[in-house]
Design goal:
The chain is mainly alpha-helical and 225 residues long. It is built from eight helices and two strands.
């Protein structure tokens, strides 16, 4: 009996031990044509055993890369894709150049500063005024969201003048809906318990100490408060 302790290392568990044995058998075939035909059959079987790879872009390219990986890059067959090597397959991607932003006005964010710089470079007066109105509206909206209260247009114009050194002025009043906290739904429990179902023949005592005479069916009686 063959135990796992006596077997070689399973390189890719997704394909199992039998696929690895098939690829190891391909290394023993001397005829190049016969080895190529068997490699094609192994590729089809690998795709059949892993149907989730069909949703991956260039899944057949990935199957061929896995074939060479399981064979420890010793298999000599023709591939429709560039044959990978140990260095290219294990190479790490270059680190992404993440942008480092340091906003001058942190409460407004870096994106608004970019829009302000774009507005200052605009030569068309109408577009420049449109930029100013949009910037003022966003500033008022941000203030309302953070402070839960409206701010006067003069305060927005003063801060915009401070940021742009008096180069931008908005004309229309940026309308922002006032924030009003939602009232609590008080008395919901009272409304829910306003009506109660009377029981069967036993009845129930009311506030005066008398016993209500219940009927056979379920009736609803309004409680007194």
């Amino acid at each position: 009996m063959e135990y796992n302790t006596t077997r070689n290392h399973l390189i890719m568990r997704e394909y199992g031990r039998h696929i690895q044995k098939m690829i190891e058998y391909l290394l023993t075939i001397d005829d190049p044509e016969q080895r190529q035909k068997n490699a094609q059959v192994v590729i089809e079987l690998m795709g059949f055993l892993n149907p989730h790879l069909k949703n991956v872009e260039d899944f057949r390219h990935k199957l061929w890369d896995h074939l060479f990986l399981v064979s420890d890059f010793k298999l000599s067959v023709k591939s429709p894709y560039p044959i990978p090597t140990r260095e290219t397959l294990k190479a790490k991607p270059d680190p992404l150049p993440y942008p480092k932003r340091h906003p001058k006005f942190s409460h407004l964010g870096k994106n608004l500063e970019i829009i302000i710089q774009k507005a200052l470079k605009e030569d068309n007066p109408e577009k420049r005024l449109g930029f100013a109105n949009a910037i003022a509206y966003y500033m008022k909206l941000a203030y309302n969201n953070w402070h839960k209260e409206l701010v006067h247009d003069d305060a927005i114009q003063g801060e915009l003048t401070n940021i742009t050194e008096g180069q931008l002025e908005f004309t229309n009043t940026p309308f922002v809906k006032a924030y009003r906290p939602q009232p609590e739904n008080r008395g919901y429990g009272k409304q829910r318990g306003k009506f109660q179902q009377r029981g069967g023949g036993g009845g129930r005592r009311n506030d005066r100490g008398d016993r209500d005479r219940g009927g056979g069916g379920g009736q609803f009686k309004k409680k007194r408060f």
